[in-house]
């Protein structure tokens, strides 16, 4: 537009300058061809007017075009703002929809409300079991005496027999192994429910762990998941075992962690010390092309060694020995000629430093447990410290304390319920963990024998709360209140608490099945206990109640 105005002004100035009357000749005479000049000037004026109109038209067209462009830009900008507002509302609507959907799934899968419209089971537990028929003190005492104590009388004799045979078997195993090349096997130790005196369900199975060590000059360097700054969630509770020479300082030198280059040499370790043939490491039961102990290789070696040991001493016994379960490599079964059998687990483990924490090559898996990250990751077991803690606390409790009785009753009822409705994500180890937490939380006098009913309800409430929150923390890991008398490693006390119910977050179908089984167990508890309880005379029941008052 400014260019057009400039052109119009230029034409007007030219016309004025060229006008003959503005600069007349000096003599002032009128030329003879004045009419002709006037005619040309008129023609020139007409042409200039036409040019002016043309320029004005061009200017108007340019203004219209520019205005149209500006209007289009405003329309586009307005549409963008409207689109942004629309996208924002769309995103907000999607978020609200997802929140509603997640709430709906949690509501359905939690199954807190029954189909009859009654109060939900979780609220029932929080209100002293309203609506749930719970057996009274007398029935529980009779059930424990007749059913629990009556079926566990031969446990001590069975433990003694299994331990004696295991010691003989391991001695034979040492004799058939090459002391210069094979692993060195130590004495076995009893752990678990059979040695903590709360196993109630048949078949009774003794759990024995067998520590082993590599031949000289090698040693194990163990690293737990909490030794590093960060570890993936699926590796929590696990660790790795590196096979090294005893004189090799793997923590003080970086030559095995960094590529030094072809023209550089470690002054602490020669090349012969840091690199070993792959076949040598495989002979040491390591994973292929690594220095890390392979749990699968260890179990194969152990099974072969046990078979050779049994062949050497089988003539001394009048029974047969076999591996009973394919998915449990350490499971053995003694079969007598009479048809009776005794099962026990003999599992190789590696000691963690100088503590009684062990890396276990095979851990009994439940439907809740996740798969191992790899065969070089070993699960850590604190079974020895758990047994010692129960023994330590039992010394401070009243005579005939009810803590073991509560665990036995709950384990029995849960097992019976699972036999009716199928397995759930809960295991006996979860039930024992609940008892350990309550043993630490309640004072000693609360575990008197007459308080069996109250403590059993406390265990159920605690378990219900953990299921609701999907959180049941390991008793030792991250627990800073572990008694100092146990000598528990400080590294595990300072670690982040380990949630045993974490798989419930990942496997919602297992969680739903577990919660359903738990609620069904509560509803059936009286029926399950009465089924295995001898009838108690009314007078005897009243007498017990009066004594408790």
Automatic annotation (TrEMBL):
Signal peptide from the UniProt entry: 1-15
Domain (Mab-21-like HhH/H2TH-like) ranges: 405-477
SMART domains: Mab-21
One annotated Gene Ontology cellular component of this protein: nuclear outer membrane
Keyword Signal: yes
A Gene Ontology molecular function term of the record: protein kinase inhibitor activity
Protein name: Inositol 1,4,5-trisphosphate receptor-interacting protein
């Amino acid at each position: 537009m400014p260019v057009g105005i400039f052109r119009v002004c230029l034409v007007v100035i030219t016309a004025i300058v060229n006008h003959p009357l503005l600069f007349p000749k000096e003599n002032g005479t009128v030329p003879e061809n004045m009419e002709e000049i006037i005619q040309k000037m008129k023609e020139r004026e007409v042409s200039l007017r036409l040019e002016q109109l043309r320029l004005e038209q061009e200017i108007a067209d340019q203004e219209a075009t520019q205005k149209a462009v500006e209007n289009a830009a405003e329309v586009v900008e307005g549409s963008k703002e409207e689109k942004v507002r629309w996208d924002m509302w769309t995103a907000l609507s999607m978020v609200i929809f997802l929140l509603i959907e997640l709430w709906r799934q949690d509501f359905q899968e939690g199954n807190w409300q029954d189909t009859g419209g009654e109060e939900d089971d979780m609220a029932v537990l929080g209100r002293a079991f309203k609506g749930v028929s719970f057996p009274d003190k007398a029935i529980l005492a009779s059930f424990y005496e007749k059913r629990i104590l009556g079926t566990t009388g031969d446990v001590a004799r069975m433990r003694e027999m299994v331990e004696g045979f295991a010691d003989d078997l391991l001695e034979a195993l040492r004799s058939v192994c090459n002391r210069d090349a094979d692993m060195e096997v130590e004495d076995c130790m009893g752990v678990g429910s059979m040695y903590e005196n709360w196993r109630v369900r048949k078949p009774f199975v003794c759990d024995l762990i067998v520590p082993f060590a590599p031949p000289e000059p090698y040693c194990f360097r163990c690293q737990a998941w909490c030794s590093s700054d960060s570890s993936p969630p699926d590796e929590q509770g696990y660790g790795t075992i590196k096979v090294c020479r005893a004189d090799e300082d793997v923590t003080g030198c970086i030559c095995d962690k960094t590529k030094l280059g072809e023209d550089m040499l470690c002054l602490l370790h020669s090349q012969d010390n840091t690199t070993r043939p792959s076949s040598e490491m495989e002979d040491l039961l390591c994973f292929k092309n690594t220095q890390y102990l392979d749990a699968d290789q260890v179990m194969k070696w152990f099974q072969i060694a046990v078979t050779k040991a049994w062949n050497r001493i089988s003539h001394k016994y009048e029974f047969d020995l076999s591996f009973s379960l394919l998915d449990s490599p350490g499971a053995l079964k003694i079969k007598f000629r009479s048809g009776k059998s005794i099962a026990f687990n003999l599992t190789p483990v590696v000691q963690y430093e100088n503590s009684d924490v062990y890396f276990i090559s095979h851990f009994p898996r439940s439907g809740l447990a996740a798969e191992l990250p790899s065969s070089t990751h070993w699960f850590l077991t604190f079974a020895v410290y758990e047994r010692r803690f129960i023994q330590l606390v039992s010394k401070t409790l009243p005579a005939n304390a009810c803590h073991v009785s509560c665990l036995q009753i709950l384990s029995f009822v849960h097992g019976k319920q699972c036999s009716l409705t199928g397995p759930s994500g809960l295991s006996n180890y979860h039930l024992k963990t609940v008892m350990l937490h309550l043993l630490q939380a309640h004072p000693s006098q609360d575990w008197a024998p007459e308080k069996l009913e109250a403590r059993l309800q406390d265990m159920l409430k605690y378990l219900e709360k953990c299921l609701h929150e999907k959180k049941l923390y390991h008793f030792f890991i991250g627990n800073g209140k572990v008694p100092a008398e146990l000598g528990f490693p400080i590294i595990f006390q300072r670690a982040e608490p380990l949630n045993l119910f974490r798989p419930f977050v990942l496997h919602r179908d297992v969680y739903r099945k577990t919660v359903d089984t738990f609620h069904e167990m509560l509803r059936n508890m009286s029926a399950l206990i009465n089924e295995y309880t001898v009838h108690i005379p009314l007078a005897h029941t009243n007498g017990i109640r009066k004594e408790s008052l």
